[in-house]
Input
Amino acid sequence: EVLRRCDLFDSIAPLGRCLRCNELLRSASKEEVLDRLLPKTKRYYDEFSLCPTCGRVYWRGSHYERMNQFLRIVLAERSATD
Output
């Protein structure tokens, strides 16, 4: 609703900010964040983002895929209303 009312569809930049402090994320090497990862994350993921302010680490796990699916649905609604 907010996206439609304020015509913000062109401003969407998903998954680029920290969920904790809203800072822009930056790419981080696996080695840089290795000591903060759980064993299965270490094993199965190689690409990471890091919040330079609070230090939170992000990767493209199952939550990332669910969020992308949600965003595809939201953006498809835009096409349906245009």
About this structure: The beta strands are 26-28, 48-50, 57-59. DSSP finds four helices and three strands in the chain.
